[in-house]
What does this fold into?
Amino acid sequence: MADYLERGIEVLGALQRSSEYLSAAELANRLGITTRSVRRIIADLKHIGFGIESVPGPHGGYRLGPGKRIALLLPSENEIVALLAGLQSAAAMGLQDPDIDHQDLTEKLLRVLPQKHRSAALDLSRYVESYRPPIPTTSARSLRELAKYCRLRMTLEITYTSDGVEEPAQLVEPHRIVQNEYLWYLLAWNQQSRCWRHYRVDRITSMRAASKRFVQRELPTLDAAGFTVNTIATAPYAYRVEAVFAASAEELAGSFPPDSVHIEAIDDHSCVVHTGAASYEIVAVYLLAPGVPFSIRYPAEMRQHMLDSARRLWAAAEGTAPASGKQK
It folds into this structure.
């Protein structure tokens, strides 16, 4: 009986994932059963109330009727891997709450899986580990609440801590939540300063709805995530630099310190890196880190700084640099 019930769930899952009619032969091939078994299972599912449409004939088949999507169905083996990997990644990225135990959540998922999928899921949960750096934790409740206010377009009054100092209460219009590296940001329009601003979610100490809806504003760019990363990487700094690298954006991803750069693809073999820091010396360290050829696009002062640094490095390598004092 348990096997037959599992087959029924698998048939529903296959129909759920397809918008086209599936023939009995296609379903039988996917599930490793006979077409006769498929027809019997379909008949039983119809009998207990599932809205399955059927079309007879050689080109006919079965599909779930409009509005008959099933809320909870058996995921495929690859989908199970994605779910478990997502749970591990959430914990590694600092998504925490007192009532969330990621290991317990994983075990709950494993308990409801059929035996044929459980062994693969167990392998993943037991033998895959995630590095968890010492990063701030972000409340899952905060993410849920902020996402709700984004949907409702509800003005929020928030208190926020920046550099260890709590700022005065602010009225903001929440637009999007952006996850970058290990941190979560709220992109919002600040009504007092009349500008877009990014707030680290873990630094929002309180929030409440101001009972006033707002009209959605247009971002300076269409990409909220790109706008956020670019602003975080460059806006706070007086020294901003653009450099063209002889590598694709995908190849450079992960080559820089978190939140230090914004990478913009040019083509499959080159990209532009936008970055900023408190000095050109720090920017130079960022740009040299990947070990990939690059050229400075902006500003000219950075080109001169690189030339001066190259001369000093060359002198140091040749042993001709003065033993003390600064080189003229």
